[in-house]
Amino acid sequence: MADPERHPAWGPEGAGGGSWADLARLCAAADEAFGSGSLDEAEGLYAVVRAREPGHPAAELGTAAVLRRRAAEQERRGRSDAASELSAEADRIERAAKAGAEVRPRTLLVRQARARADAGDMEAAVRLLQDSVRAAIGERRVSGLADELEDAGTDEAWRILVARAALTAQADAERAADLASLLRNGPRRPASEVDGALDPAADIDQPDPPAPLVVASKPPVVEPHGPSAGPAEAGMVFESHRGGLPPMAPYFAEVWRRRQFLVHMARAKLKGQHADTLAGRAWTLLNPILLALTYFMLVTVLLDAQSTTTVYLGTLLSGLFAFFYTSNAIRMGALSVVGAGNLVMNTAFPRLLLPLSACVSALLLFLPMLLVYAVFHLAVGLPLGPQLAAVPLIIALQTSLCAGLAMLVAVANVFVRDVGRALPYALRLWLYLSPVLWTIDQVPDSAARVVEFSPLYPILVSWHQVLIDGEGPGGWLLAQAGAWGAVTLVAGTVLFLRKEREFAVRI
Amino acid sequence: MRSASEQGARAQVGASPTAIRVQGLSVSHRTVYRSPRRAGARRIEITRRRRIQRVDALRDVSLTVPRGEVLGIVGANGAGKSTLLRAIAGILPPGQGRIEVRGRVSTLLALGVGFNRSLSGRDNVLLGGLAAGLEPSAIRARYDEIVDFAELGDHMELPMKTYSSGMFGRLAFSVAVHMDPDILLIDEALATGDATFKAKSSARMRELCDNAGTILLVTHGMSTIRDLATSCVWLHRGQVMSRGDPSAVVDDYATYARTKKHARAIHDDE
To answer: Which domains does chain B show, CATH number per domain?
Structure first.
């Protein structure tokens, strides 16, 4: 079976040397340009055809048409001598083209094609055959052409050339039936049987738009991806998008492989933020401390709160820091994709790394806050005990929530930029609706239902229980936190992966 | 640089002869814009109609790139060259058609991708390398080579904000060409800098073309194509017009460009 990539009849798809210009396509493009008024473009394209094949009728006539159009323009501008010069040139070209066409009868074309094929110049042979087919169709002498083609040869290679020429001339065919007859009466076997070379599914009676000279549309054997292909041989296939998710295992394998990129991006982002300041990296600690103090002053001074006890300060600090973790993750997540235009447009990597990196940045901001809180906790004498072993668990649950929310917000912001704008307000409102500035007992029952529904509610209450009350976190609360985390993570991942492919065109 | 034994091993690991196969690829995108205000409208228009225009960046493109080939891609601006590279890299999804890629793809489509200007040159080498898909150990192994090539010396510790554009370009280019790709996609002449650096960059590109597995090179420099490419493709308005021997294809494109320019010069004298 002829290997489509090596068989010379298929052109330089992988065959080095020789070159091929799709003259039909060039003429079509030139006609298109002419139609839309780009005369110089049309002239340029026709010129390429004429350089490759002097006397090509379509190109010659096309050039003449361009010149006539220019002549009309010059006439409009009142330059009649320029106009008549152009018209004369157009006439000359048209005359030569018609004369040329007369000198090249069908039989001569077929003989020339055979000679070129024997000499090994398959491209020229196909072109000549295409011209002969067109000529025959124009003259309605298709069966005569079929006879001449048989006379010229009956070998396999010749038949393939003929079939190919016929197929690619489909665009010119006024009547597909003529072509079908050519193929039935010419080569002994119908097109569909020519091995491996033609698309068995092509319906000859329905000409396609100018087909490119690639036909092997039997799906190529895709070598297995994965370990058997060797580490350097990752085979990837991109096909048109029909909704749905990319293959998950390779995707997450690649995410894992690029984990260092994720971490370094997260660190670089934070490093870059404080580059100009005097305090530099101390700001990662100063920020939360100053914010906490501000809120403390707000609550005590303005609200004349019940007790400005250290317990209350501890509640405030731990609640605010925990809240900031999530709100930072969301805030940075929203910008993670839309702000990475350069990366998204110019490198290929699993885009999920972007919101995950935002989440890691938020975590890196959270850890120093935890440290500051720990110092405070010890200094003030808040309870220590085995319940503190639950802290890593709470952090893990909160992290899954943050990651999920970061992904959701990242995707949403790409499609609806208003999300990013509205976010500061939404986050502020969420803070007020969370048990940070107040505790649950201060809230009337009707409102309690509402605030309990927040995804951060179980997390914040768990923090409070473990750090301030000195008790182990309630199992029910942890289950709720776990559920929220899992749901947002899955929803975020699925939504992100489905929409990921559109990012490059939306940013 | 890969050692000879590594190259031999690679050739043996069932490497298929085809590195890239593109079949019937079409990519189009839609731009949304607001209809322009009608001239002389008396009332203030609160919303203007959104119009959607569809742009066909690539139309039914098919090609096959065997392993080891340096394929030049030429064409006028807007012909779809960058779109083709990005589709092959997996950055843009195909609207129709199918792309098969065998091997790891490295893209050199823009300078300084992944860089953070607030950070030092040293940090950015790491970031740029990671963005390109290298392991940190591999980046550290190449670090000295990258710095030498960029000729920046002590500036490496300073934030890249302080670099001149030439320095930025040199470091970014140096990072980009020291990756070790199976398949390399290069868009446009990325070499900047003075004459000495340009010469070094060309030599380095030439080395890449000799050593790297497969290269797709988009450029406007016809002499680059003639020197480096083993095969060439001419794209015009998203379609392949000509392909094969680089000189012939470049001639076709040159004929087109020359005629077009000549025609415009003569006739476009408004």
So the answer is: 4-103+182-269 (3.40.50.300)
